[in-house]
Amino acid sequence: MSDAPDRRERLLNLLAALLETRRGLTRAEIVNNPTLGYPAGAAAARRAFERDKASLRAMGVPLRDTEKDNETRYRVTPSEYYLPALDLSDGELAALHVAVTAIGLGDGAGEGALMKLGGIEGEGAVPIAALPLAESLVPLFEASRRRAVVRFRYRGRERELEPWGLTSKFGNWYVVGLDHGVDDMRVYRANRIEGDVEAGTPRAFVVPADFRADRYLEDQPWQYGGGRPLAVRVLADAGHAAALAARAEPGAVEPVADGSAIVTLQAVNLDTLCSYVVGFLEHAEVLDPPEARAAVVAWLEAIAT
């Protein structure tokens, strides 16, 4: 039988004890406290305590250890652990309420956070957008914060990624980082990750100081995701060729005598490219490859039904 529930309870009790103590607790005082439930035997108790220390620190708990009288004492200072009072005005709380209710996150976490910040003030807003939270987001954010390499399955393939950062766009969350499998930067949509996200040891990589995750989502959303890009040729008429050409790489535009142009776009996500091209209505047409044309037809049929 798994001891995971017992360990979670032990971690919570340990955190409470470390927050309550003023002078700090020694390892012996901690592992011999019957309310904490450490295993019998000095070696087993020591190993369990070391794992618990690592877990608390991995979660961001500011666990301090100090040497006093030739003993190491452990303590969590409440002022370092708890969020300080923000003393928001009624107007500031009302503005936060509008912002939280205008964007749906798929649960009640937003209003719960408002209550912790001082209560709900004023009327909420009519929702204008939704940003659903994928199950993979919590481990991805935690791994990014700890600088731990993650492993997950995406489109049927195992990926190993340094999660440099996360960002959202078009109502979806994306993780951006260095993919070890291709030794290059990749962007993966969080809600398309299959199964669990496994994280390695912390401090496994360094993120460049000038890195910004949102820069990878600025221009071509059809390039985001895993898999090999597909060269899609699109014919745009004279009035719209320039707009389409602005999205293409240098040398990917073939001018036509009547002022139109054939633009080649590199697409990993055909659905996203289809939605973009269809927005040009009759002014743009996907020429090839056949699977791209078929994707446009399927996209239009889905809209019509």
Structure description:
The protein is α+β, with helices and mostly antiparallel strands and 305 residues long. It folds into four domains: 4-81, Arc Repressor Mutant, subunit A, CATH 1.10.10.10; 90-130, no CATH class; 137-218, SH3 type barrels (Roll), CATH 2.30.30; 230-304, no CATH class. Helices cover 34% and strands 26% of the residues. It has ten helices and 14 strands. The protein has a five-stranded antiparallel beta sheet with strand order 9-8-7-6-10. Strands 12-13-11-14 form a four-stranded antiparallel beta sheet. Strand 2 (63-68) and strand 3 form a beta hairpin. Helix 5 (90-102) packs antiparallel against helix 6 and helix 9 (270-278) packs across helix 10 (290-304). The two termini are 50 Å apart.
Give the topology, please.
Blueprint: H1 4-20, E1 25-26, H2 27-31, H3 42-58, E2 63-68, E3 71-76, H4 78-81, H5 90-102, E4 103-104, H6 109-117, E5 129-130, H7 137-146, E6 150-154, E7 157-169, E8 172-179, E9 184-189, E10 193-199, E11 230-236, H8 241-245, E12 253-255, E13 261-267, H9 270-278, E14 284-288, H10 290-304
Parallel strand pairs: 4-5
Antiparallel strand pairs: 1-3, 2-3, 6-7, 6-10, 7-8, 8-9, 11-13, 11-14, 12-13
Helix pairs in contact: 5-6, 9-10
Major pleated sheet: 5 strands, antiparallel
Tell me the structural class. alpha+beta
H/E element string? HEHHEEHHEHEHEEEEEEHEEHEH
The main sheet orders its strands as: 9-8-7-6-10
CATH domain fold name of the largest domain: SH3 type barrels
Roughly how many Å is the radius of gyration? Answer: 26 Å
The total number of structural domains is 4
The low-pLDDT segments are 1-5, 107-112, 114-131
Report mean pLDDT, rounded to a whole number: 79
